[in-house]
Write a structure and sequence with these properties.
mainly alpha, about 60% helix, 8 helices, single chain
């Protein structure tokens, strides 16, 4: 059917089928479609791959983790307070509702599944830089979402997160008499920042998010333990087992690490190493705590 189509310049320019049965001139493909090997624009009807779902899961987790971080910073309590639990639950509802709505708004409409165009290479995320200019005469503007819907769905999701926060958070705060202005103000900064990062680095994040998950988990784990006043092995171990807040925070770090390892699709036996960063810190804290070195220096 497409064998007679003339070649289009560039790698993202194609021809669209018109209502009269003829083909358009070379140009940008309509949203939700992508050029095939015969330079015809074909609708995106592939099922989203597991790796792409995991990527969307990672992008979904980022606002929730940021919400929880700033809520915890504002609480300044060693244990979970009523205010912190309510605001965290509200943040979870906001991002969960935003994720569901963002999925429903994409093709196929009002279904919890997604039609997609397969991601083939890094340049698919940056079609803006691949508009052809044959013989430096006529420029073809073929910028499109070649990885539909992985770019727009995240932008829609971040917008819905912000909208839900403005609607849900004040209602819950007034109904349950909880005040939490600082976390909301923080969201007004980090949500636009996440949007900017996604708009510029989405392709790089797509290929590196498993490693980012692992790095974020290990760094957060080390920072969490380093903030403890008592840096002895016994105190760190007991707080990791009996302190409910510590158990929850460490569990989140472990889940993030497990998520990153699972996304790599190497050997799932590596999941056995999930507790290793915590155990490594506890077992080696005596060699890294500055207090230990000061005691040794005083004895000399």
């Amino acid at each position: 059917m497409y064998n007679y189509l003339d070649r289009c310049p560039g790698i993202y320019c194609g021809r669209s089928l018109l209502e009269n049965g003829s083909w358009s001139s070379c140009g940008v493909c309509p949203r939700g479609s992508r050029v095939n090997a015969s330079f015809a624009c074909m609708p995106c009807r592939d099922e989203l791959s597991t790796y792409s779902w995991l990527y969307l899961g990672f992008m979904t987790m980022l606002p929730l983790m940021m919400h929880c971080f700033f809520i915890d910073m504002d609480a300044k309590d060693r244990k979970f307070s009523r205010k912190q639990l309510i605001l965290t639950a509200s943040a979870f509802v906001e991002v969960a509702l935003a994720a569901i709505l963002a999925t429903l708004f994409m093709e196929p409409l009002w279904e919890l599944r997604l039609f997609a165009c397969e991601v083939r290479k890094l340049t698919d995320w940056y079609t803006l830089f691949y508009n052809p200019n044959p013989n430096y005469e006529t420029a073809y503007h073929c910028t499109q979402e070649a990885v539909y819907p992985l770019q727009t769905i995240v932008l829609v999701y971040y917008f819905l997160c912000l909208l839900n926060m403005f609607i849900i958070r004040p209602v819950i705060s007034s109904m349950l008499d909880v005040r939490g202005k600082a976390p909301m103000y923080s969201a007004l900064y980090f949500l636009p920042l996440l949007t900017l990062i996604h708009g510029t680095c989405c392709g790089l994040i797509y290929y590196s998010f498993p490693y980012l998950s692992i790095a974020m988990s290990m760094v957060a784990n080390a920072i969490h333990y380093s903030l403890k006043l008592d840096q002895t092995q016994k105190a760190l171990l007991l707080s990791s087992v009996w302190d409910v807040k510590n158990v929850v925070i460490i569990s989140v770090h472990w889940l993030l690490l497990a998520f990153g390892i699972s996304s790599l699709n190497y050997h799932y036996a590596l999941l056995c190493l999930v507790p290793f960063p915590s155990l490594f810190y506890i077992l080696t804290v005596r060699f890294t705590d500055p207090g230990e070195f000061r005691e040794i220096e005083s004895r000399i």
